[in-house]
């Protein structure tokens, strides 16, 4: 099925046609021409940035990179699309600045959004993209001197009000990512179509181990939630149905809800093919609109799409829906609390292009918001290194499938956007800036007991 890339605002809010070209002597004309200005307006055209802002950005970037083992080389084009860039392991990576003027100008105008848009435009590459990003992520707190951090407000943008996760806003935000194309996700996910961290028996892992590792992750979550024969289970965030299928195989009665029409349709077909429609109901709807009482509630990497504004509602809903003596099992990506507070106020490259309306919580935020709703954490285990491995396998397969991605109607800027997104995420886990947690919560006063 042919489908267009995500809906990106067509109004370029930072571009000035009169200013484009002033610093573009080294821009590659073929790369510029390959970017669709209607689909990717802020990538196709350079933003406004005064000479002072650009010079300051250049100085900050050069000083920051000087604190890392990264090598910098200007000019030349060695990136081969569709080829993996290494495994993010030890070694010194090289940042290839094909167009230094455009690179610094974008950062001068838009900070890290400009950094990502510059990659989408083909203005820089790395001989090992994950290694380069991991070096930066592992030194994130030391790259910019403290006095210059006060200038952060000059480079960041506020999150668009239209991306708030209201009932309508959440539906639109989910559609922009998860309704891209089921065929696209099938190209790089394993046959279980599970789009969340796997749990391996050993690292590094072979690609053949990914489905088994995804089932191991799902089974541990179902164990955390005490899911067995006759369990009334609610799943918030269906994905493509694998968790619901495995829960039904245990004899559970499953209601699973999603805001993605594409996911709902395919999950329903998979459930019907497995002969489990009598045990699993898939509904297109918002978690806030679910009614009933459930012995167990499971949600896998969905809290990141809720938004900080709605975390109190999310946990209050969990508390309302879980029956006395029941369990809630969450799988959640987490980040440091200070970083979360900064990100919550910022429109980032990820929120602009990949996950609109999303925010990764901290462990402190989860603990505070769940306690305020009357839920108590009884189990909390982290598997960040397993997510790095999962992302490596996805990224390598995505790159191998470059021609097939193109055949689905996704252009070069989209492919580079997703390559950077997967590599950027992998680097976050390899640097331990990000983690992924499996958490069990119970209502205050409910029976507890640690998983053995």
Q: In words, what does this structure look like?
A:
The structure is a single chain. The chain is of the alpha/beta class. The protein has helices at residues 29-33, 41-44, 51-66, 100-120, 129-137, 146-149, 167-178, 182-188, 210-224, 242-249, 261-273, 311-321, 337-344, 349-353, 363-372, 384-400, 402-407, 412-430; strands at 71-74, 94-97, 124-126, 232-236, 253-258, 280-284, 294-300, 322-334, 375-382, 435-443. It folds into two domains: 29-154, no CATH class; 161-443, Vaccinia Virus protein VP39 (Rossmann fold, 3-Layer(aba) Sandwich). Helix content is 42%, strand content 14%. A seven-stranded mixed beta sheet has the order 6-5-4-7-8-10-9, with helices on both faces. It has a three-stranded mixed beta sheet with strand order 1-2-3. The longest helix has 21 residues, at 100-120.
Summing up helix and strand content along with how strands pair, one would put the structural category as: alpha/beta
Strand order of the largest sheet: 6-5-4-7-8-10-9
**Number of helical segments?**
18
- Average residue-wise pLDDT: 87
- The amount of beta strand, in percent, is 5-15%
- Count of distinct strands: 10
Q: Which geometry do the CA atoms define?
A: globular
End-to-end CA span? 45 Å
Q: H/E series, N to C?
A: HHHEEHEHHHHHEHEHEEHEHHHEHHHE
User: Would you identify the CATH architecture of the largest domain?
Assistant: 3-Layer(aba) Sandwich
């Amino acid at each position: 099925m042919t489908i267009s890339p995500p809906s990106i605002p067509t109004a370029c809010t930072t571009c000035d046609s009169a200013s484009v070209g002033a610093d573009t002597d080294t821009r590659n004309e073929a790369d510029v021409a390959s970017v669709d200005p209607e689909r990717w307006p802020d990538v196709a055209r350079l933003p406004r940035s005064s000479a002072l802002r650009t010079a300051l950005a250049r100085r900050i970037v050069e000083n920051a990179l000087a604190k890392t083992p990264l090598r910098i080389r200007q000019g030349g084009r060695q990136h081969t699309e569709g080829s993996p860039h290494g495994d993010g392991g030890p070694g010194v990576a090289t940042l290839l600045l094909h167009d230094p003027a455009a690179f610094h100008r974008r950062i001068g105008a838009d900070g890290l959004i400009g950094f990502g848009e510059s990659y989408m435009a083909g203005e820089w590459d790395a001989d090992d993209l994950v290694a380069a990003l991991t070096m930066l992520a592992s030194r994130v707190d030391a790259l910019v001197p403290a006095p210059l951090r006060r200038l952060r407000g000059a480079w960041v943008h506020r999150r668009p009000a239209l991306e708030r996760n209201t009932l309508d806003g959440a539906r639109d935000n989910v559609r922009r990512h998860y309704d891209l194309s089921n065929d696209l996700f099938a190209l790089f996910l394993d046959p279980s179509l599970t789009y969340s961290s796997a749990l391996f028996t050993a690292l590094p892992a072979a690609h053949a181990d990914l489905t088994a590792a995804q089932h191991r992750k799902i089974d541990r979550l179902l164990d955390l939630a005490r899911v067995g024969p006759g369990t009334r289970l609610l799943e918030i965030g269906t994905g493509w149905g694998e968790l619901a299928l495995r829960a039904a195989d245990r004899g559970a009665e499953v209601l699973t809800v999603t805001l993605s029409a594409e996911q709902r349709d395919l999950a329903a077909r998979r459930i019907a093919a497995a002969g489990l429609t009598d045990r699993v109901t898939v509904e297109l709807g918002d978690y806030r609109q679910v009614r009933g009482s459930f012995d167990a509630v499971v949600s896998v990497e969905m809290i990141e799409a809720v938004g900080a504004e709605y975390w109190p509602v999310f946990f209050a809903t969990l508390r309302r829906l879980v029956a006395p003596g029941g369990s809630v099992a969450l799988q959640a990506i987490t980040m440091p609390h200070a970083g979360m507070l900064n990100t919550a106020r910022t429109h980032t490259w990820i929120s602009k292009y990949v996950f609109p309306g999303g925010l990764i919580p901290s462990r402190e935020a989860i603990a505070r918001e769940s306690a305020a709703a009357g839920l108590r954490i009884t189990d909390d285990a982290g598997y960040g290194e397993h997510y790095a491995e999962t992302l490596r396998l996805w990224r390598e397969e995505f790159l191998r499938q470059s021609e097939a991605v193109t055949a689905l109607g996704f252009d070069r800027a989209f492919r580079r956007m997703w390559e950077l997104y997967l590599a950027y995420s992998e680097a976050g886990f390899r640097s331990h800036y990000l983690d992924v947690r499996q958490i069990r919560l119970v209502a205050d006063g409910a029976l507890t007991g640690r998983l053995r």
